């Protein structure tokens, strides 16, 4: 998935009509940067999740981690909602208020087992997806357990209730 590093750009990611959704269990939404924030929005521009880093005049430049998780100093992370299929990102650099350059850092969705701060210098980030089956796909199954996959009715963050099979 893409890494967003531009304050003036709202970047959107959409899995479209594919059978995939972003894994809530395996992914984290991460913002890396000093004194800023990142917001994840849905297709209508409504807030989904986000996080921000501290604006401290401490010049040590140390980023603190516990078990490979961001602490809020130059890096923050948060969970994502269930059944996320598309999102937009918006970054804000707040450092200008403290006399800095107002740089906005970068934000991305990342597989939590692959995350190591500063490791992803390129624009592509490893992300975990879940494969879902719809009603038509279920009818095509001719193998596996005789009981077959079980139907799950899920509720998305936008209150839709699609059927899926797992």
Automatic annotation (TrEMBL):
Keywords: Kinase, Transferase. GO terms for molecular function: kinase activity. It comes from the Eukaryota. PANTHER family: OSJNBA0016N04.9 PROTEIN. This is Protein kinase-like domain-containing protein. It comes from Artemisia annua.
